[in-house]
Amino acid sequence: MIIRNKQERSVQETDYQPDVREFDQRLASHEVAADQLGAGRMDQLSQLEASSIDILAMLREQRDEENERLVVQERTFVDDVPSSAETVVRMPKLRRGLSPWWLVAAVTVGFVVGFAMPRNTRSASSASRYTLTADSLHGRSLAGGDVNMALLVTY
Amino acid sequence: MTRLTADDFNRLYREHARRAQGFFLRMTGGDVALAEDLTQELFTRLWEHRDGFDARQGTFTTWMFSVAYNLCKNAYRHRDVVAAWSAETMARNEPGDQALSAAAVSPAADAALDRREQREQLAAAVRSLPDGIREVFLLRYMEELPIGDVARVLGIPEGTVKSRSFTALTTLREKMKRLTD
Q1: Which of residues 11-40 of B touch A (CB under 8 A)?
Q2: In terms of CA atoms, which chain A residue is nearest residue B32?
Q3: CA separation for the pair A18, B37 (Å, rounded)
Q4: Which of A6, A97, B42, B103 has the most CB atoms lying inside 10 A of its own CB?
Q5: Which ipTM did the prediction report?
């Protein structure tokens, strides 16, 4: 509802005030009830604990005996072991060093080099020309089978 | 926040290791080897994460038991201890209950049943408590932590700690009554 003027607003507030007060009172009573309930539960528990003191005493004797029998390992902690904070700082650096981008870069370089290099030897004639040239430098002649072997070696 | 030095930590280890091991022993149903392993794992973790400990936010004991409880949960998860434990508990309960009945029917039972036996049977009764209730009982009454600390360690409301404490005590009293009747 739109409140048009100050007078109307004051009427509205006056109208709602009893409800608000009632709500506050109910809330307060609920809170008191909740506190009482909690306190009641606590009282009940305290009473139960007090009446169970024999049981608890026996169980604590049992606990002490069990603990006495335990063999605790001797151990000494020294400060030169890196703390968690240092480890946390060091870990991302290590991870950064092993970043998958390095792998991607290496594969890319491999592709570039791989596609660039063998282009001269892609056809048998160019390969044979290549090997013939290479072999002629060594003063050797090639038979047909040797060209295939030369192709393999070139690849 | 001051960082725990090695000297501080060694002192804390000497003061609390036995207590932690006892807690693990009771949490794992008496598995001595597992309790030893978990204790060492616990203090290794505490040492590694010692920068996370702030004495203003809680005591070392609360911190230690929080990590210890998580280790127990992990141990349960990975080693399937819960299933083994339930089966073991059921198997153990049967003779325990029979022993209680036998004690009740035997005329010389009251004389024969000394405090030690009662204690052992009570300890068995604690082991037979359901998981959530047993944890609350062990932390509240065996490790004697305040209700607020138990709630913080287990991550449950204080009201739940109270109601579970109530259930645990009521159950144990009933068992004790059967034992002495």
Answers
A1: 13, 17-19, 21-22, 25-26, 32, 35-36, 39-40
A2: A70
A3: 66
A4: B42
A5: 0.74
* Min distance A155 CA to chain B CA atoms (Å): 52
Q: What is the mean pLDDT of chain A?
A: 67
**Model-wide pTM > 0.80:** no
Neighbouring residues of A56: CB distance < 8 A, sequence distance ≥ 6? A49, B141
In this structure, how many other beta carbons lie within 10 angstroms of the beta carbon of residue A12? 12
Give the span between the Cα atoms of A8 and A2, in whole angstroms.
10
List the domain boundaries for chain B: 1-79, 80-181
Is the model's pLDDT at A137 over the cut of 90? no
How confident is residue B95, by pLDDT bands cut at 50, 70 and 90? very low
Residue B114, chain A, CB below 8 Å: the answer is: no
Residue of chain A whose alpha carbon sits nearest to that of B172: A55
- CATH number for the region B80-181 comes to 1.10.10.10
Nearest chain B Cα distance for residue A100, angstroms: 29
Q: How many C-beta neighbours within 10 Å does residue A7 have?
A: 9
State how far residue B181 is from chain A, nearest Cα, in angstroms: 15
CATH domain B1-79 topology: Rna Polymerase Sigma Factor; Chain: A (1.10.1740)
Candidates A38, A61, A75; nearest CB to B43: A75
State residue B63's pLDDT score.
93
Q: Closest partner residue to A70 among B25, B115, B119, by Cβ?
A: B25
| CB-facing half-sphere around the CA of B166: CA atoms within 13 A | 14
